[in-house]
Amino acid sequence: MVEEGMTIILDSGSTTLLIAEALARKSNITVITNSLPAAFTLSENKDLTLVVCGGTVRHKTHSMHGTIAERSLHGISADVMFVGADGIDATNGITTFNEGYSISGVMAAAAHKVIAVLDATKFNRRGFNQVLPMDKIDCVITDDSISKQDKAALAKTGVELMIGLKRSRLCVADRESKPEGKVRPAITAQCPHHFTHINHLIEY
After folding, report:
1. From start to end of the chain, where are the E strands?
2. What is the pLDDT of residues 28-42, one digit of tens each?
3. Where do the DeoR-like transcriptional repressor C-terminal sensor domain residues begin and end (predicted)?
4. Which CATH number is correct for 7-203, 3.40.1390.20, 3.40.50.1100, 3.20.20.70, 3.40.50.1360?
5. pLDDT tier for residue 98 given thresholds of 50, 70 and 90
């Protein structure tokens, strides 16, 4: 799914942070992101090119938004975009509970393929602000707890569905110690469940 030489756009979110952790093991790729935690993770690998969107920080998600962030994506042509979701349904696509969330649309317009990565609990959970309509999404990757009804509804949209991930509990540490004695915020995705086999997905 992700090969050497590719340019990847990575939206902010807890699930896309797990994608960032997998991408950080690869080399000779370019990753463009508006997520500060993802940028921190990816910056540890000198064998990839990291581009961070400028803009205004949204403190709740530690991500960059606004006109400056969106303008930084103008002229970009990426192979793949990975996007998470607060909610998704076959009628409204990806939605969020945040206001003024428009950068994902700019990211999607700059990518040849848009992949939504989310756990099955997000299906039929609908926020008040649309992030991406279904006709802008090429593929949805979710876990093996997706219902038959949600599979059927997604199939009618023509969007590709991949079910290759399992869910497991995630223990969240607030801080982690570094060998030299310094302390930094933990960069593990802070969500109630997380996907296992994310690295396998990236290698797919």
Report:
1. 7-10, 30-33, 49-52, 56-58, 63-65, 78-83, 87-89, 93-96, 111-117, 129-132, 139-143, 160-169, 175-177, 183-185, 193-196
2. 999 999 999 999 999
3. 1-143
4. 3.40.50.1360
5. confident
